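Section 3.1: Structural characterization of target chains.
Under the original work plan, the team committed to producing a structural model for every single-chain target entering the pipeline before any wet-lab resources were allocated. The record below documents one such target. The sequence was received from the expression subgroup and is listed exactly as submitted; it comprises 275 residues.
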Amino acid sequence: MEQAQSIEDLEIDLLLEGVFQLSGHDFRGYRRGLLARKLHALMQAAKLNSVSMLQDRVLHDPHMLETLLRMLGAKTAGLFDDPAHFLALREALGPWLRSCPSPKVWIAECTSAEDIATLAILLAEEGVYDKTQVFATAANEGLLEEASRGILAAERIREYEDNYRRSGGKHALADYCREDKGHIVLLPRMLSNITWAQYSLATNASFNEFELIVCRGTLGEFGAPLRRRTLQLFHESLPVFGMLSVDQANEMACEPFASRYKSICANQGLYRRMA
């Protein structure tokens, strides 16, 4: 069993290196156990018996490569999917951005319309959307393009309404979206201040300074070295007093991050850069 596991680990290393060399997408720093489960699911669906067989398909079949990239790059997302977090963010963010003449917000790994809709609605209700420049990035250009269409999951709209109310929503979701041929779509004005760009947290450098950086549902998929690289990247992209919205990351309680940030709200993954 240990030998078989060791062989599969080697196969995964070779697959990820091949994917990086072929496409530029770098999953080598992701948590191996989580990656292995996703790869096994794809192998089962494609009726492949080993990672090496999957590698052969990925390297020679562009459709299989795209399927793999989408599977590894996608993450579960919902509108205001952590109401307590977004209530705390709303209460801290409004006063901070209203004090900034031209604030910038970065949504890292924005792979669904729900990611952008949550922040756009929150910014609009705090009266700062029109003066804020929002950057939405993701490593997978296909997922990013789909997010830019602003199409929400219509079958989850009741859940979204409940999340929105519990997160401090001031109006109704119907004020920000419309029904179109069975879809729920964000109004054009809610997508007007957004710059969309392909960007990899694993390989790219800081590209601007932001008053708020949001990266949720992603850090938990990274291995420890890549998480620390990403947090360092975010630190380089925040001014003093800038805000960081992330899932809970153990590294935030350790140096050097512990002395650089102050928790805004206990156990909510909200931090303000202090140094």
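The longest helix spans residues 2-23.
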